[in-house]
Structure formats: C-alpha cells, structure tokens
Specification:
Two copies of one chain form a homodimer.
Chain A lengths: L5 E5 L3 H13 L4 E6 L11 H6 L13 H6 L2 E5 L1 E7 L4 E6 L5 E5 L2 E4 L3 E3 L12 E2 L4 H13 L4 E5 L3 H12 L3 E6 L10 H13 L3 E4 L3 E5 L6 E4 L2 E4 L2 E4 L3 E3 L2 H5 L23 E3 L6 E2 L6 E2 L4 H15 L13 E5 L2 E7 L2 H6 L4 E9 L10 E9 L5 E8 L4 H12 L4 H5 L15 H22 L1
Parallel strand pairs in A: 1-2, 1-7, 2-3, 7-18, 9-16, 10-11, 10-16, 11-12
Antiparallel strand pairs in A: 4-5, 5-6, 8-17, 13-14, 14-15, 19-20, 21-22, 22-25, 23-24, 24-25
Helix pairs in contact in A: 1-8
Chain lengths: 460, 460
C-alpha cells in the first residue's frame, strides 16, 4: 500500500486556502494539511476595515469557509498553529499549537508557502503601547473594536495613507472619532500620482479628516496607553492609533530555509509559483511577482493576486502545468464617498522603469449629463511618448470608477495604444455612461499628447 | 481669391454633427453647412425614452449644442430642412426648407451623408392611426408626451422588444400605463441569447409589464384613433402604441445617387468612411460597418458608433487619414431595475458566422457577499471551441453590468482567449466586486468548457 502524497500549506488565508482547495479538487488522493497562525482561515482581510467601521457587525461574515467546512472536503486546517521552521532537505517542518502545545515535526512531499505579509511598522518607537494596532487579521479588527468599545475614544490617528490607512481613516470617521492621517510621502495614496491624490485629499478634508503629508512619525507616546503621536514637531492627540504603513513579505521561514528572495524580499517564484527548490511552491503576499508592463519583479500584495497565485500553485502541486501571468497593480479603494482606482504604472514608476511618459487627464461624467445621478469622474491615462502604448490609468470619482479602471487594465493586458483604446466599442446608455465614455476621451487626449509631443521633439 | 472649400453634411444628429465639428476644428477655412430634417440638431436620441418617462422633464436637456452654438463656431446648421436629392456628378444637392420654402440647389466640394435610420415599421396595417408612434426624434417624444397628457390613457402597447421597445415599456410603466410588449421573436431582446432573455422577461413580469413573444402584429386598429393591437389572434386594448421593431438605414438619397449599398442596405464605406465616390463620405446609422469578430459587414445602429464614425469622416473631409476600426455590437440597456449588457456575437450569430461555439454562465455577486448592497449578476461568455478565443459576452443584473461588459469588450478587442481573460488583473475592493469578479469566474468556466469539450471531441 502506497502512502498518500502529503501536501502541507503554510498559511490559511487567500493564497493558502486557494492552493489547498484547488489541489483537493484536482487530486482527491492528496493528503492536504494547512497551518494558519490566526484563529481563522479563509477570511477576507479586505473586509476588515468595514468590520471596524461597524458596516459589517459580525466578523463571521468575513469568513468564506470554516475549518469544519474544509474538513468536510478532506482538507485539514489547523488554525492557531505556527510553523517555526522548514527543512527543505528532509522535507519536514516544525509546527506548534499556539494554545500551549509543544512543537512537533511533520513531513511533507509538497509544500506551499503562503505565509502572507507582516506590517512594515517595526521602526516606530512606542508601537507596542496599548491602543496601537495594525490590521491584518480578524483578531486585529476585534481588538480595535474592543478598544473603542471599552473607552471613551475621541481621537484617532492613522499612520500611513495607503489603501488600508485610508479605509481605516474612513472607518474611524464612521465611528465618530476625530481622525488624523499622517503620511510620510508628500501626498496621500502614494500609488496614485500627486494630481489624483489632490482629489482624495479634498474629499478627506471635506469629510473632516485631517491629513498631514510629508512627515515622518517620530514616536507614539503615552503612559499606560497611547496618548499622542509625535510627528514633524507636532503632537497629535490619540486615543487609538492604527499603523498602516504598508506590508513586507513574511519570509522568515523562507529566508531561514535559504529560498531565494528578490529585491523586495519577496520569495522568488516562476510562472508556475515554483520556488526553484524541488517540491516547494509559494504564493500570495510572501512572493514577488512579475510586472506585466516592465517585465521586472514587483511586489504588489493584493487579495486578487493571492487568490490567483494560490490557484496556480494548487493546480501545479496536483500535477498540473498552470501559469500566473503577472500583475498590473490594479486596485480600487473607497475613500469616504470617493472611489479611486489605478492600474499599471504611475508617472514616477513609469519613469523609473525607463519609459518616456506622457499623460492626459479629463474630467467628465459617469452618466449622460441629463440623466439623474451623474457624477464627475477624472480619468488620467499614461502612455509611452511616440508609440502611444498605454502604461497606466487612474480614475477618481463618486461612481463608476472600479470597472472603468478594469477596462483600462484590459487594454493594458492587450498591449493597446491610447489610439486603439479610443476605438474600443464600449457600451452606452444614458443611465450608465455618456456617449463618449470618459475613458475614451482620456484615450483620445493621451493619443494626441503622445504623438504631438513626439512630433515636437523631432522638430527640435 | 480662392473660394473656401464647401462641406455639406446631410443629417445633424450624432454622426453628422460629430463630422461637422471635427472638420471645423481641424480646418478653420472650411465652409461647413449641415441640413437636418427635424427641428433639433445634436440631440441625444438615446435619452428620448427618459423624456417620455418624465425622468428628464425638459427636452432641451437632450440637446447637446444648438444651431446658434454651432454658428458661433462657424458651422451653419439648417434645421427643418430636407435634402431631396444628391447629385454626385455635379456635386450639388437639392434641399428644401420644410417650413414652406421652395427647394433650391446647393453645391458642395465634400459631402458627408449622415442621414441616420428610419423605423422599420412599414408593414403594419393601421400604423398611421392617431396614437401610434415611433421614436427617433425629439418631436416624436414630444408627440407621445402630448398624446398622453391630452387623454385618459390607461393602456399602452409596445411593438418590438429591442432596446427602444424595452425602454419605452419601462417609460410607460413609469407613466402608470398598463403596458404590453409584443415581440415577433421567441424571446425579448433578440440581441441576447434566450437564457439571458429569460431574466429580462422575469423582471418585466415582476414589474407588471405583459410580454407576448413569438407573435406577429396583424394590425393596429381603431376608429378615429388607436384602440387595439391585433396580434396572434388576440386583441390587446391600447390607448397608445409605440412601434419599436428596429430601424433600417435611411438610404433613400444614397440609393438614388447610386452609392453602393450592402446586404443590410447600409451604405458601404471603407475604414475612412469613404463611400467609393470621390468627395462623398458617410457615417452613422445609414452605413453598414465591419464586425471585428467575423470581419464581415454588420449593421449595428448605435449612438457610440455614429459619434465615432462621424469624427473619422470629419477628420478625413478635412484632409486627415483616420480610420474607424469596426464594431463589436457592445450595448447596454436598463430594463426597469435590471441592467442588461452584451458585446460581440450571440450564440446564434456566432454559429451563423461559422464558429464552433461553447458558452458558460455564472451567477455571482456585484460586490463582496458581506458588503451591503450587493446584487446578483449573471455573466455568460461565448468562446470558440478548442482555441478558447472569446466571441462574446452577456451580463444581466441589478448593478455593475455596463462596465463589466466593457471589460469583456476590451478582451474581445485584444483577441483574448477565455483563459487569458481569467488572468486579467482586475480591481477589487469589497464595495465594488467580489475578490473573484464574476467576469473572471465566467472566463474560467468558459476556458474549461472550450478545452474540455474539445478534448471530449478528440476522444470520440
């Protein structure tokens, strides 16, 4: 009797559970075990700010599938288990039940590392004070809710104005806390260009959220609990602080096991999510990935990517030959009543990647101008000078942003020029768009900018 | 002194005014005159049903630019003028002021025919009875509103369940009329597949709109005004009837001038909107166009296409060399609270074009399942068996349909396979989409169907 092939997955959120599920579906004979450090598996981390805001009162709504449900499918999920070391030569790992259990050694034939990311907050003095939080897990969200519920919290500070930072500022506003956002870069949401960020800053100001940009946090201070944030010479009162200054790939295990890491410290994987060590795959926020526009490595830790990579890893663990193509960094975030989307390269990113960039912005409407409920949309497109090849897009407005960004993302996947995008046959009816969709008008202006400026250059 | 080059445009709505405006912008020296049969130029025909519904009370809101505004730009727009004949040898036309004026002959150096379409209603007995309308112009909408306002209308019949027919049924419902839709085909909205149409029929039924499919109207009957519609042996009471059985290219002038017409009777044009007769361009609903998926001629009279073609014609009249690539037939329509979008080929169209088609449908959510306000969406994708190349898509749901259809349209422009679409890096945040967008899941299922069934075939 031959033993069943043993697959172990480290990390039970997006990438890990996608890998486990996919492997299970493709090969019913695999013995699949998942270890997850938190108390929950298969939850939507992206829903956590809305749980804090109170919009989603029950944290269980964020759990897609429970360990019991996975067990019924033949996938063993051990939550509250920490994997402490991986041995890729002996094909074992050390794991410990965090509820006081002793560590034990478990064998594997195939390993999927989906260890996720950890908050990049290590440098801030005072970050361990009670009342200072990061937000990665359901437990984090519960702790924030409990802290607010137990105290007369009035003032909140969010450190970092990225996706999570802005969502958390909005969540605190929903909880009636006077909220200040402190961002090190010179504008909010560093993943969009400064001109687009201006619209976000205006929305935050209109909603009474204070924003301080271009300032580094010196320390978080307080006696037995957080009381203030010291930044750029100012002291900002704080009953609660959330640090959302981005994440780093959690590669503690991978580094110790000598798996190759990339320039952003993510685990290096090929298109099949293979690490280069036989029998070891990796997926999700612990990996670096390939950017489709410049072809180089990129670190874009997002749930969509984690799910896709997990599926690919799971398929290949089960003997498949699937590939993850790469990312464009497409993302969307709701900031109060504003929707902000981006895809591809920003101006600075594109310049860094060696592109000669032109851009054009248009402000137009989400629906026909005579149709009730229309809102203004600003669409910015970036293209390569001369060729007009699209490099990225950013949209900000009060409705209709997310899927318009996806149209631009699709055009980027196609390698389209701005002129080609202008010719796209997009849908139109007065309740949904103007007859010239803002994306098409932006494409036209970008095409003109790409060629006109190119001509000007030739003439010089 | 050389005379200014004289450009005459026949038809002053979407294509015509786009052509005139574009030519004006590119060449300030042109002498540009537009003749338009109705009292209005540059209006949104797609907004007319909402004017009838009462959602847009003022018809002037539908007018993008008035003749006075065009005059200020140096474009002469003569509304209520009918062009009676074109002479492409002498480069003249006969035109008549419909307010009692005598006809006169006008010369042109360049002619743009943007005569639009006419309702395809000629065959129905009784169609001239008072109370029977079609809907192409602002005057049509005003006449319908006046008819309802002057009478105790209770029952309405809409003949034809295409885009306009369904929008008009919704408009009559908004006016509290008991409404019946009669459609000759065996399902509503013949431009979507029968299974998608089932969802539309359910919405119409839920909103109290009666639908009779698979039935031809024998006659519209009444004494001094419309009183009933006779169809399939039944007599349907009607205080007002709108005929929306589609349109035909208005090629009276073009045919008389011996311009080549295509299989759908549309004027044959090349990519530059040239008719083949020197100095004569055509654009908009009077033309046939090229379908990007099968490469053959296609007649898809839509405002977006008319605007794009008009711009190209205008640029080329002014000495440019622009091209209109072709159409996918992308469209979206709001039916009561339902949004219905489609792009590319339907099942029957694809089969007719010689494709071996597979399809897959998924029902999923418009936002994360835990996020308030999510709605169900049904996405159907069509692909070529074996290759998996995408051929079309249809979406039906209560929000987020239009721009998701545009993502599919963009994938069609890219010539993408279903598997490639599955890998698209689309945006995700809980308020806007589930982590796996319904479009991506549909792409996955379609890719599986395309290859699995292909394998099955090889095995047979």
């Amino acid at each position: 009797m031959s033993a069943r092939r043993r697959v172990v997955v480290v990390g039970g959120v997006a990438a890990g559970m996608s890998a486990a599920s996919r492997a299970r579906r493709l090969d019913p004979d695999l013995d699949i075990t998942v270890y997850e450090r938190s108390h929950f598996c298969s939850y939507s981390a992206c829903g956590l700010p809305y749980h804090v805001a109170g919009l989603i009162p029950d944290h269980e709504a964020l759990v897609v599938r429970t360990p019991e449900e996975f067990a019924a499918d033949g996938v063993t999920v051990n939550v509250h288990h920490e994997v402490m070391a991986i041995n890729v030569v002996e094909r074992t790992l050390r794991v410990r039940n965090m509820a006081g259990g002793r560590s034990r050694t478990e064998p594997w034939d195939a390993l999927v590392i989906a260890a996720g990311a950890r908050p990049a907050s290590s440098g801030i003095p005072g970050k361990s004070l009670p009342g200072v939080f990061t937000l990665r897990t359901i437990e984090d969200a519960q702790a924030i809710r409990a802290w607010i519920a137990a105290r007369d919290c009035r003032e909140a500070v969010v450190i970092g104005a990225g996706y999570i930072g802005l969502e958390m500022a909005d969540a605190f506003r929903a909880r009636d806390l006077a909220t200040t956002v402190v961002e090190r870069a010179d504008h909010v949401l560093p993943l969009v260009d400064p001109d687009v960020a201006d619209d976000i800053a205006a929305e935050l100001a209109a909603k009474g959220i204070d924003v301080v940009c271009g300032v580094t946090v010196d320390a978080i201070a307080g006696k037995s609990r957080v009381q203030r944030v010291l930044a750029g010479g100012a002291s900002i009162a704080a009953d609660i602080v959330v640090i959302g200054v981005g994440v780093r790939p959690d590669t503690t295990l991978a580094a110790a096991a000598r798996l190759p890491l990339g320039p952003d410290d993510g685990i290096v994987v090929d298109e099949g999510m293979r690490t280069g060590v036989d029998g070891v795959w990796a997926a999700g926020d612990c990996c670096q990935t390939r950017h489709l526009l410049h072809g180089g490595p990129s670190y874009v830790p997002l749930g969509t990517t984690a799910n896709k990579q997990g599926r690919v890893a799971g398929a290949n663990v089960a003997g498949g030959d699937e590939r993850f193509a790469g990312v464009l960094g497409t993302a969307v975030v709701k900031v109060c009543e504003l929707e902000v989307g981006r895809t591809g390269l920003g101006e600075q990113e594109a310049a860094n990647a060696g592109f000669d960039v032109v851009s054009a912005s248009v402000t137009h409407l989400s629906r026909a101008g005579y149709y009730p409920g229309h809102e203004q949309l600003r669409v910015k497109l970036l293209a390569e000078r001369g060729s007009g090849r699209l490099l990225g897009g950013q949209i900000v407005g009060r409705e209709g942003v997310a899927k318009r960004v996806d149209v631009i993302a699709a055009a980027l996947h196609a390698g389209a020029t701005a002129a080609e995008l202008e010719g796209y046959d997009l849908s139109y009816a007065p309740p949904f768009a103007p007859v010239w969709d803002p994306v098409l008008i932006a494409a036209r202006k970008t095409a003109e900018a790409a060629t006109a400026r190119a001509r000007l250059r030739e003439a010089v």
